C-alpha cells in the first residue's frame, strides 16, 4: 500500500514533514511495539462456519492431537480464506511497513514489491483469499489474490520465486537463502496456525473435543484450546481437524475481550490429489523487473541495516517472564528515554509524541512507559528502553515489568 497522501497539494511543508515522520515511525519504533504480532498472534481460534455436524466416532482430545501430529499430507491444492483483525491503529496505510519492519510500499527506499518478507505480512490485517498447492517438501505454491492482480510465491526445488502481477516485478532466491525462511515464518494455512497453537498446550491449557463440523465438504472434529489462567488476551482457539487425514482445515482465534475473531483461516475448497506439475513452473514474464535476494541485501539502506542490527542485538538477550499463556517476552533495546524525540539527534522530530498518541501511558515500580495495544498482543516500552510483549493484558505487562525491576 502506498503511504497516505493528502488530496490537497497545497498543505505544504507541514504535511510533508508528517509523512516523513510516519515513514520513519514505521522503520524505527512501531515494529518494536508490535514485534510480537506476527509471532505470538499467529502462534496462538471458536466460530466455525460449518454446514452440518457429521456423525463421527468419539475421540478424546489427546487422540485428536496425536492424529494431527501423525498427519503427513504431502499433496494438496485448495483455496483458503483468512481474516485477521488485530485492531491495529490506522497509520495511513503503513501497516505492511510497520509489521515487516522495513520501508512501506511506495517509499523511495522500498525494495522489490515481490519480496515475500514484506508482501506476506499483508496477511496480518484484513481479509484475503489464497490459493495453495503442495507436492512434497520441495514443491509448494501460494497465491494471494488481489483486486485485478495476484501475488504468487513458488518453491520449486532450489528456486524460490515471488511474482507481483500488479507491478510486474519478480523476486528470486534459492531455498537456502533467507527469503525462503522469511516466507515460512508467515503462517498462512490452518495447519501452519495449528502447529503454532499446539506449542502452547501445557498444564496451563484446557483442551477438549467440542463436537464435529463439516469444512470444505469434509467431515471434521472440533478441537478447542483455552487458557486456564486469567490475564491472557486469548479467549479460545478452535481447530476443525479433518477426520480422515488429521490435517487442520479451519483455525479460529477469538479474544478474551469478545467480539469478532482475531484470526479466522479456513479452506473453502480442498483436494488431496497430486497437483499438476505445471502448477509449480515459473518463468519471469517478458519485461518483468527481476530482483535477486543478494542484490536486495546489498542495497539495503545503511540506517535500515543498523536498526535491524540493533533490534537483533536486543533480542539476543531475550528473556521470558511467567509461564504458559501469561508468558511475557522482554528485552533491552539499549535506547534510553523511551520513544524517540527531538533530543535523539533531531532527525525524528516530535515522533515520540506522535507515536505516544497511539499508546497508553503507564506507571509502576519499574518507572513509566507506553503500552501499545492490539486485540491480542500488547507491548510495553519503558522509559529506560526495555520492551515487554505478550498476549496478555496491559495490567499483566505492568506487573511483569514491576517483577523484573
Automatic annotation (TrEMBL):
Signal peptide: none
Annotated region described as Disordered, given as residue ranges: 97-116
Gene3D superfamilies according to UniProt: Lipoprotein localisation LolA/LolB/LppX
Pfam families: LolA
InterPro entries: LolA/LolB/LppX (IPR029046), OM_lipoprot_carrier_LolA-like (IPR004564), Sporulation_related (IPR052944)
Domain of life per record: Bacteria
Keywords: Lipoprotein, Membrane, Transmembrane, Transmembrane helix
TM region positions: 28-49
Name of the protein: Outer membrane lipoprotein carrier protein LolA
Organism: Streptomyces griseicoloratus
Amino acid at each position: 500500500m502506498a503511504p497516505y497522501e493528502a488530496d490537497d497539494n497545497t498543505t505544504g511543508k507541514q504535511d510533508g514533514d508528517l509523512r516523513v515522520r510516519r515513514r520513519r515511525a514505521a522503520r524505527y519504533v512501531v515494529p518494536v511495539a508490535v514485534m510480537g504480532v506476527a509471532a505470538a498472534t499467529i502462534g496462538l481460534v471458536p466460530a466455525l462456519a460449518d454446514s452440518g455436524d457429521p456423525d463421527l466416532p468419539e475421540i478424546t482430545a489427546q487422540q485428536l492431537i496425536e492424529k494431527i501430529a501423525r498427519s503427513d499430507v504431502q499433496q494438496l491444492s485448495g483455496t483458503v480464506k483468512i481474516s485477521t483483525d488485530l485492531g491495529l491503529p490506522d497509520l495511513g496505510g503503513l501497516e505492511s511497513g510497520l509489521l515487516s519492519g522495513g520501508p512501506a510500499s511506495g517509499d523511495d527506499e522500498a525494495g522489490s514489491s515481490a519480496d515475500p518478507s514484506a508482501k506476506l505480512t499483508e496477511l496480518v490485517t484484513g481479509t484475503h483469499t489464497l490459493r495453495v498447492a503442495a507436492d512434497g517438501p520441495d514443491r509448494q505454491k501460494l497465491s494471494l489474490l488481489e483486486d485485478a492482480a495476484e501475488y504468487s510465491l513458488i518453491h520449486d526445488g532450489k528456486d524460490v520465486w515471488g511474482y507481483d502481477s500488479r507491478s510486474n516485478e519478480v523476486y528470486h532466491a534459492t531455498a537456502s537463502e533467507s527469503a525462503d525462511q522469511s516466507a515460512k515464518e508467515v503462517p498462512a494455512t490452518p495447519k501452519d496456525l495449528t502447529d503454532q497453537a499446539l506449542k502452547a498446550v501445557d498444564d496451563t491449557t484446557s483442551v477438549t473435543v467440542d463436537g464435529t463440523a463439516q469444512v470444505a465438504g469434509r467431515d471434521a472434529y472440533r478441537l478447542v484450546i483455552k487458557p486456564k489462567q486469567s490475564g491472557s488476551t486469548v479467549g479460545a482457539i478452535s481447530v476443525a481437524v479433518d477426520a480422515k487425514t488429521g490435517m487442520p482445515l479451519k483455525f479460529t482465534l477469538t479474544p478474551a475481550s469478545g467480539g469478532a475473531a482475531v484470526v479466522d483461516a479456513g479452506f473453502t475448497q480442498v483436494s488431496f490429489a497430486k497437483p499438476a506439475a505445471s502448477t509449480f513452473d515459473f518463468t519471469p514474464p517478458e519485461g518483468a523487473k527481476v530482483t535477486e535476494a543478494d542484490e536486495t541485501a546489498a542495497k539495503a539502506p545503511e540506517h535500515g541495516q543498523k536498526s535491524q542490527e540493533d533490534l537483533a542485538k536486543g533480542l539476543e538477550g531475550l528473556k521470558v517472564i511467567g509461564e504458559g499463556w501469561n508468558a511475557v517476552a522482554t528485552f533491552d533495546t539499549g535506547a534510553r528515554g523511551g520513544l524517540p524525540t527531538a533530543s535523539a539527534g533531531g532527525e525524528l522530530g516530535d515522533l515520540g509524541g506522535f507515536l505516544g498518541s497511539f499508546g497508553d501511558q503507564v506507571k509502576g515500580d519499574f518507572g513509566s512507559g507506553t503500552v501499545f495495544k492490539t486485540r491480542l498482543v500488547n507491548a510495553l516500552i519503558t522509559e529506560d528502553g526495555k520492551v515487554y510483549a505478550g498476549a496478555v493484558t496491559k495490567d499483566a505487562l505492568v506487573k511483569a515489568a514491576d517483577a523484573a525491576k
